[in-house]
Amino acid sequence: xxxxxxxxxxxxxxxxxxFVASWPYDDSGFSKDxxxxxxxxxxxxxxxxxxxxxxxxxxxxxxxxxxxxxxxAALKQWRSEAAGDKFANxxxxxxxQKLSHVPEKxxxxxxxxxxxxxxxxxxxxxMSPKGARISPxxxxxxxxxxGTYENFKExxxxxxxxxxxxxxxxxxxxxxGKLIISTTANQDSPVTERLHPILVIDIW
Length: 204
Known about the structure:
The chain is an alpha+beta fold. It folds into two domains: 22-44 and 51-130, Fe,Mn superoxide dismutase (SOD) domain (Helix Hairpins), CATH 1.10.287; 133-203, minor pseudopilin epsh fold, CATH 3.55.40.20. It is 40% helix and 11% strand. It has helices at residues 53-81, 92-97, 104-125, 136-146, 149-162, and strands at 167-173, 179-185, 196-203. The longest helix has 29 residues, at 53-81. It starts with 52 loop residues before the first helix and ends with a strand. Residues 1-25 have low confidence and may be disordered.
């Protein structure tokens, strides 16, 4: 297991307690006939020395691109078989949030590849070659929920080190707005559990 060394916080303040329409750099909150691979907000080598250019390329051009293509193929077939179905034609974010309602024929494919598309879009947005300051609102919420920022980092790091196999470690808001640290295996996404992710680290 390799843990990416870059651990970055979103600078955006998440003041709303409901799910927002979309996250930066992806179209997951919008219904699309075809979803495009989100462009990175920085160059492939911009995260060095924390993450090398080859690793970023493999994950973006290889893994993320493959998830995007397979998700699009599954959505296209499902939508062609369920013409006019509003749920089938809704956004991938909505589909992941209501994954149990997806026909069994497509559920696992969209769980894995829709999750892979969505999770990686957030992952890229959480990193910056210039670093970032935490917004005052988020900083206050971290202290309110974890006592201190150092306590949060210790708990987040411990979760990352304890995750067996591949998956993700998340900082999310629950439906009451409380910050929680959670893990998901493989390409499962916290939005399926009605959580709103604001920070993620990819474990592989």
